[in-house]
Amino acid sequence: MIKGSMVALVTPMTLTGEVDWEALDRLIDFHLDNATDGIVAAGTTGEPSTLSFAEHFDVIRRVVERVKGRIPVIAGTGANATTEAIELTRYASKVGADYCLSATPYYNKPTQEGLYLHYKAIAEASDLPIILYNVPGRTAVDMHNETVLRLAEVDKIVALKDATGDLERAKFLVDSFRGTDFKLFSGDDATACDFILMGGQGDISVTANVAPRQMHDMCAAALAGDESLAHQINTRLLPLHTGLFVESNPIPAKWALYEMGLIERGIRLPLTPLSEKYRTTIHEALEMAGVLNK
Description:
Blueprint: E1 4-8, H1 21-33, E2 38-41, H2 53-67, E3 73-76, H3 82-95, E4 99-103, H4 112-125, E5 130-134, H5 136-139, H6 145-151, E6 157-162, H7 167-177, E7 183-186, H8 189-197, E8 202-205, H9 212-223, H10 227-243, H11 251-259, H12 279-288
Parallel strand pairs: 1-2, 1-8, 2-3, 3-4, 4-5, 5-6, 6-7, 7-8
Helix pairs in contact: 1-2, 2-3, 3-4, 4-6, 8-9, 8-10, 9-10, 10-12, 11-12
Subunit structure: Homotetramer; dimer of dimers.
Family: Belongs to the DapA family.
Keywords: Amino-acid biosynthesis, Cytoplasm, Diaminopimelate biosynthesis, Lyase, Lysine biosynthesis, Schiff base
């Protein structure tokens, strides 16, 4: 099973808003060269809500083809329509993704029973291992711990990405799944170090977009139980953990990658490029993390 630092990869775009396929290849190579442990294609940070269905398919396929099995590829296949999530998951399986990451359905606010039946239907419709994704700050629906425990009994549901940032809640899950094959990943960079040290298996990370080597090293230290080294690395990354959320993700991450010379400034409406008042904040965070030379 995958573990460590998994990047929630941005989808690079040109200034006119088209997917920049050459830049996507560069980003993938950047992560392969810097020890990223897995790549999420078309997850939340990849702007799937503004990609066409064909583009969403193509991003997943392109990442799989470029990675060539060197590290796991996790396809973002979440949708608020169960039928659409099934279609995306089946496609990801067809083109060779290793896992899918499926966010709780947004906007329509299903009940806990609805969440259970949604994920059960996806699991029964595809052979791809499923990572549940709870991110109530984006979807306006919270998957309760009791529902996670119930879903863990469903064949092919193998892990949870918990983006709540609630470590007390995470500890309950870690204790509940200790000694089982079900895995727990942080989806909140600011608390990921402590999440892993208490027993989580990794972090599906926004920060890893711009500091992949450092995030890999932090996760590896935490997984090894080296609390001192993990916190030492994480301290340098804290300004990025917070700075990359001064505006809605992936606005700051895309701007940071633009500053690093890896992508253009392209982003799709209703998202806009980073506000000028935050650009110094991002620049200084990149410097502190050792990503940019002072």
